[in-house]
């Protein structure tokens, strides 16, 4: 295979030597049904083999998954070797209600929170702060820090948050979150490495000096992906649609293509200096595991289940 060039002129191959200096993290969501719970825990145990730096568990709008999120995080703490990070938003809740959740996590032994403003409540056109709540993510982070010395991750948007009027406003918001105490930013998904590298350059010019971890979303269903992208402002390039055209009823082929596409982008990111990757697993291990394998991650000898 011909080499591919990264944004800084160096070359790498998609199937280069396995890397030794990569850190990965994985995102899961709390299951709604017994069957979904089985799928989740099979995925958790499978991906545990890759020794991620942490795993995160999402939090529904308005705290709609509060109990399920807490239960999932607690089980990860109790039954695995993984370090869980609990997502937390300030939508539809007072400060006292949010503070109770934060304190519950601290008491349970959780030391990492992914602090997010959150999406508008169901039926609302735009985000409106709770009258007695935290106003935004930066305000939420300040509240978290008053309760415990958490490691705090925040969201970042290489292609601009849909609520931001422009890039400068988006970067200013991210800077406020970092100044409030966040220790890293995890990006929304994207599909072209140049989008990430341009964003990192903008962050550095804005005085944002924490790690910017790229969020990787393997394509499991192209129609669903388009819906996700429309909601968060991510660009889906035309070439990606062309690649997945005609594969709606061919899941095995689609997964092979998805793994190859994501692996190539990860290699491009690696060639440009990226060493930390965050994967949106959608609670399914197969694609994420394959991409990590192609990137060069291997479980310890004898730990595999296959």
Task: Describe, in plain words, how this protein is organized in 3D.
The chain is an alpha/beta fold and 306 residues long. It has a single domain (19-295), classed as TIM Barrel, CATH 3.20.20. 43% of the residues lie in helices and 15% in strands. It has ten helices and ten strands. The protein has an eight-stranded parallel β-barrel, surrounded by five helices. A two-stranded antiparallel sheet has the order 1-2. β6, α4 and β7 (151-156) form a beta-alpha-beta unit. α1 runs parallel beside α10 (285-295) and α4 (137-147) runs parallel beside α5. The radius of gyration is 19 Å and the shape is globular.
Produce a short descriptive summary:
This protein is an alpha/beta fold and 306 residues long. Residues 1-15 have low confidence and may be disordered.
Helix content: 40-55%
Order of helices and strands: EEEHEHEHEHEHEHEHHHEH
Do you know the CATH architecture? Alpha-Beta Barrel
Strand content: 15-25%
Rg (C-alpha, Å): 19 Å
The low-confidence runs, each spanning 5 or more residues with pLDDT under 50, are 1-15
Alpha plus pi helix count: 10
N-C termini distance: 29 Å
Average the pLDDT over all residues and give the rounded result. 88
Per DSSP E runs of 2 or more residues, the count of β-strands stands at: 10
Characterize the biggest β-sheet. Answer: 8 strands, parallel, barrel
CATH topology: TIM Barrel
Quick one: CATH class? Alpha Beta
SS-derived structural category: alpha/beta
């Amino acid at each position: 295979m011909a080499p591919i060039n990264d944004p800084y002129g160096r070359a790498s191959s998609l199937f280069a030597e396995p890397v030794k200096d990569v850190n990965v993290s994985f995102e899961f969501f709390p299951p709604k049904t017994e069957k979904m719970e089985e799928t989740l825990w099979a995925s958790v145990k499978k991906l545990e083999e890759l020794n991620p730096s942490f795993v995160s568990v999402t939090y529904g709008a308005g705290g709609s998954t509060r109990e399920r999120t807490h239960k999932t995080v607690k089980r990860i703490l109790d039954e695995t070797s993984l370090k869980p990070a609990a997502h937390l938003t300030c939508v539809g809740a007072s400060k006292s209600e949010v503070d109770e959740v934060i304190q519950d996590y601290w008491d349970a032994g959780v030391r990492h929170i992914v602090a997010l403003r959150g999406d508008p409540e169901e039926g609302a056109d735009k985000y409106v702060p709770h009258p007695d709540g935290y106003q935004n993510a930066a305000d939420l982070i300040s509240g978290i820090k008053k309760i415990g010395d958490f490691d705090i991750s925040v969201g970042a948007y290489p292609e601009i948050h849909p609520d931001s009027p422009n890039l400068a406003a988006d970067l200013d918001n991210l800077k406020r979150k970092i100044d409030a105490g966040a220790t890293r930013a995890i990006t929304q998904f994207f599909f072209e490495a140049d989008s990430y590298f341009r964003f990192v350059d903008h962050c550095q010019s804005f005085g944002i000096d924490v790690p910017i971890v790229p969020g990787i979303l393997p394509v499991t269903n192209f129609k669903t992906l388009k819906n996700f992208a429309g909601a968060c402002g991510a660009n889906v390039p035309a070439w990606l649609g062309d690649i997945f055209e005609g594969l709606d009823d061919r899941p095995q082929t689609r997964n092979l293509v998805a793994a190859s596409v994501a692996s190539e982008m990860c290699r491009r990111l690696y060639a440009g200096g990226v060493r930390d990757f965050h994967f949106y697993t959608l609670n399914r291990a197969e694609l994420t595991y394959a991409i990590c394998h192609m990137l060069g991650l291997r479980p310890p000898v004898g730990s595999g289940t296959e």
